[in-house]
Please model this.
Amino acid sequence: MNEPQVIAEMLTAKTIAVVGLSDDPMKASHYVSAYMQAAGKRILPVNPSIESVLGERSYASLADLPVRPDLVNVFRLPRAIPGIVDEMIAMGFDALWTQAGIVNAEAAAKAEAHGMRVVMDHCLMVEHRAHAR
Model:
């Protein structure tokens, strides 16, 4: 988990599913996703409470996505991560990123045991900026 090479590989993702993406521009999930979108990434919002955000239709779950994302970026509380990992395993997704402050070591271990690359407790936007230099 959190190996520099894995972080660098994940930053090449072209399609990013964002679990917990908010339509509130003041929330980190929104402005981080807007930044990544401006950097050329396709954002797939996953939030059953909203219809659309950042010009993209929102989906109720990872299973509802129309395409396979290269990366799943999570803005949910640590207790939600095990369920997200289970859904990712069922879908065959292989790249999990949780934002700064979001850690669930047991879920990370399970994800890695199923062949996933995992980054936890890192901001995707911060890492993207740092690697863009």
Q: What stands out?
A: Residues 46 and 59 are 5 Å apart (CA to CA). The first helix runs from residue 4 to 10. The two ends are 23 Å apart (CA to CA).
